[in-house]
Amino acid sequence: MDLDFTEEQEMLRTSARDFLTTECPKTLVKELEESEKGYSPELWRKMAELGWMGLAIPEEYGGMGMDFLDLTILIEEMGRNILPGPFFSTVVLGALPILTAGSEEQKKELLPKIAEGEAILTMALTEPTATYEASGIKLKAVAEGDSFVLNGTKLFVENAHIADYIICVTRTKDGASPEDGITLFVVDGGSPGIKCEVVPTIATDKLCEVVFKDVKVPKKNMLGELDKGWPIVARTLEQATMAKCAEMIGGAQAALDMTVDYAKERVQYGRPIGSFQAIQFYLADMWMNVDMGKNIIYEVAWMVSEGLPCTEKVAIAKGWVNEAYKFVTERGVQIHGAIGTTRDHDIPLYFRRAWAADLAFGDTDFQREVVARQLGI
Amino acid sequence: MDFRLTPEQEALKKEFEEFFEQEMKNAPPEMGTGLEAMLSGEGFPFHRQMVRKVAQKGWLVMAWPKEYGGQDAPIINQLIYSDVMGYYRAPGTDIFGVGMLGPTLLAAGNEEQKREHLPPIARGEIMWCQGWSEPNSGSDLASLTTKAVRDGDDYIINGQKIWTSGAQHADWMFMIARTNPEEKRSRGLSFFLLDMKTPGVTVRPLYSMEGSHLFNEVFFDDVRVPARNMVGEENQGGAVTRAMMNFERSNVGQMSTLRRSLEELIEFCKETKWNGKTLAENPFIRHRLAQLAIEIEVGRSLSFRIAWLQEKGGLLLAAHAASAAKVFGSELAQRYAYTGYQIMGLYGQVKRGSKWAPLMGTFESNSQLCMGMNIAAGTSEIQRNLVAWIGLGLPRTI
């Protein structure tokens, strides 16, 4: 057993934290929330220079050849600092499924572009059915000559409005089970027939409605095999859920740190409010939620990284962190008092993200149902 | 990072599993229903013979040095042992002698005390209890007033202890008493080892609300303790007790016990039909069971982290994490008990012994017993304070 990160991993964490603190202050975060694109191309370029987009891409495709666990460390720091933009969608929802299921040709074409920061990607999975179950996939892809023609609507697609490529999860057959008949395509974001609109959401994180109307996609852009795409989605969801957990726990830790500092500084009745037992109890519970979340997340992220079976563990981790992040930010606002409820303050940035992240890749009820099934009930 | 056990550790785990699986076949049926079963009725003799068996195996004090009957084993081995033992809900842990006094004597006892007291604990022969709380000194232990006054080669003890778990069975007690009446706080306390058969010691039972006999009052009326039975220097008892906290505090056993109990509850929900449907089909019940599974697994992950930190750097690295594990564990046990009680519906209230009691009435008893666990060994409030003070550096105001 070795429950510590390696020295290299600790260095990655420290350098990411330093870089984001300097390059992505909260003023920029707030500015980007209001912007149309939702990211800073200049910052994106600097991240590419550091090799971040290619961190988990093998060296032969222009990446740094590190693994999924390393990637979650970086994402935890992004969550801690709040980094707006398409890193998550490009790397976790784009590069990873290509690595899982892409042909050699697809990998050679797309991965170096991603690693160099030249391509923004996303995955169009959910629809107005608003579920992560295969049964929710209704968007149709029909073969026509050398192409497939896509028709339907995707909803809550991160950063589709700026994506160069959209990995679209389609239904190509009404199979024996909802999982049967799912096919993935790498769609050029500029294809005729794609209409994209940003949906205003709690975390202003550029979730889009993407309407596909007679969108032609060449057959060679199919990712994986016809009708057998669901396992790719399942693997991506496993990775994405744990990456989201890492992002969330980073945010929860930041909200906790911020609140502890405030409780030590803020004086009422002649003493810091952190000396009152009521506040100490809130903070102790917040710390427990975060610390216990870290333990389980590192354990399960390691399992995902090692390719071990972990359906139940992933659901357990997300089920815990959903509640932990909401709890920590809600108490964080409470301890900050009135100022914590204002637009100008930093703590609501985390509060709003906690409520958005809860829903991503399955809210707590969804995860409980997964766990229940795994328990044999 | 690597969360896997080594092949040697896996083999050890298997050995523990085979042993407890076999031994627990002979356990009295109520053994799995709660810790009170260990101290009463048929449970107590079963507990005592289990202590001696695991001692013979060399497992009882495996982390102690070899010269005092241990194996110098790493704390991870202890963790694996507690994990397996907890899952089988086996008795056989003498938490006071093995868990508390042993580490204290190893750190603060003189050679004579170690030679006299450690080997009998290691062999599972002597049962200890802990003389700590007093009627007016609970969380604020340092305010205690039981007196020890020097008289020649002895100290004479007068006063009262309370909430003394297992005193009705104990051979010896380790206790703290005030040797300097001028000093109100911990600087005036000393640490003594007391033979419970000494004249002037009276044990009186305190029954828990559900009827079990875990706790006692212990009265001292001119009780003579030889001065050589004082551990550490006079008035240094506070420092001696701090050494006590450095035993395996991962709490993994409780998590694996809960996991086993949850498996049992799940089986019950799969088999039991109400209104034509199994309980497990009810979405509210499914989610409550799943939520317990989530919390147990997260608690287990914390336990492994604490053991890992202890292995690396002792309890200083993990003191507030151990406090977190304690409060989380006892409160989770409470949520488990209440959830089970509610799932049973009207049957939840039926006591063990009735033909109508599901799962031997475990939820009727545990929904009451769990309250005590939020108080014993440091209340939930004190544990949260420790997390806030040690873990977060918040001002200490009491």
Structural notes for this entry:
Chain A is an alpha+beta fold. Chain A has helices spanning 7-23, 26-34, 41-49, 68-81, 87-101, 104-115, 230-265, 277-306, 311-336, 347-359, 364-374, and strands at 121-124, 140-144, 147-158, 165-171, 182-188, 194-199, 207-218, 222-223, 267-268, 271-272. Chain A folds into three domains: 7-119, Orthogonal Bundle (Butyryl-Coa Dehydrogenase, subunit A, domain 1), CATH 1.10.540.10; 123-228, Beta Barrel (Butyryl-CoA Dehydrogenase, subunit A, domain 2); 231-374, Butyryl-CoA Dehydrogenase, subunit A, domain 3 (Up-down Bundle), CATH 1.20.140. With 398 residues, chain B is α+β, with helices and mostly antiparallel strands. Chain B has eleven helices and ten strands. In chain B, strand 6 and strand 7 (215-226) form a beta hairpin. In chain B, 48% of the residues are buried. Chains A and B meet through helix 7, strand 10, helix 8, helix 9 and helix 11 of A and helix 7, helix 8, helix 9 and helix 11 of B.
Residue fraction in strands of chain A: 15-25%
Going by CATH, the homologous superfamily of the largest domain in chain B would be Butyryl-CoA Dehydrogenase, subunit A, domain 3
Backbone CA Rg of chain B: 22 Å
The CATH top-level class label of the largest domain in chain B: Mainly Alpha
CATH superfamily of the largest domain in chain A: Butyryl-CoA Dehydrogenase, subunit A, domain 3
Task: Just name the CATH architecture of the largest domain in chain A.
Answer: Up-down Bundle
For the biggest sheet of chain A, the summary is: 4 strands, mixed
Most extensive interface between two protein chains, with residue counts = A-B, 46 and 46 residues
Shape field of chain A: globular
User: Which range best describes the helical content of chain A: under 10%, 10-25%, 25-40%, 40-55%, 55-70% or over 70%?
Assistant: 40-55%
Q: Strands of the biggest beta sheet of chain B: in what spatial order? A: 1-4-5-8
* Quaternary assembly: heterodimer
Helices of chain B, by number, come to: 11
- Termini separation of chain A comes to 32 Å
Q: Got a strand count of chain B?
A: 10
Which secondary-structure class do the elements of chain A indicate?
alpha+beta
Return the average pLDDT of chain B rounded to an integer: 93
Largest sheet of chain B: 4 strands, mixed
Distance between the termini of chain B: 40 Å
Read across the widest sheet of chain A, the strand sequence of neighbours is 1-4-5-8
